[in-house]
Amino acid sequence: MSDTAPVERRLLRDVVYNRLYDGILDGTLEPGETLLDEKLTAWLGVSRTPIREALMKLADIGLVEMAPNRYTRVAPIDLKAIDEAIYTTGLLHEYAARAFVPSLDNAAVARLDKAQKQVKKSAKARDLPALGHAFNDFFLELARAGGNDVLVSVSEGLSPQLLRYISVWKTPFGIDDLPGALAGVVAAAKERDGATAGDLVKALYAGTLTQFLDDYRRNDADIAQAPVF
User: Fold this and answer.
1) What is the mean pLDDT of the chain?
2) Do residues 63 and 143 touch, judged by C-beta distance below 8 A?
């Protein structure tokens, strides 16, 4: 019985973390919004402890800013962080496609196909938060298939900034083209063609980065000078 309470607290913290994480990414909690303990406890129906634990974890991944005795707030949208996340994630996912696709088993290909269909469904519905999660799940599935724990961990760490981009932009990735692009990756995976899969992923992320910069009519140097939106 002495081991029960810590497990329950850990699970509760994770539930609170997921609610706050989703709330930030879907815009329920807006960039710069102050996060008050009493309002969060009323909203989530939990005590202060799991909320503070979840907020600290969110601060570690850049979605929350905490200044002791001053404020706890949703982090502003950081263009530099998004810029870097798109570029770096593109490199990681291109590598995963080239390295892992040739040796995928049938079960992994089926999971990729299922994830691609969820992307198509979310894009058709114009549900950007759902689209972000589906897109992220597709590439995390590919990363996990390779058994490279470091690559998976780094990809997961970059996910929040990438998901913020998808959630707040009107036409991230070119929504209408995204399902077709991922369907091409799945088709290459079925043929175990890592070179083609890698080329498709590279083109997808290159176009995304170009669009991101064009949306703001800025370049990398401009973003470095004024990164927060």
Assistant:
1) 82
2) no
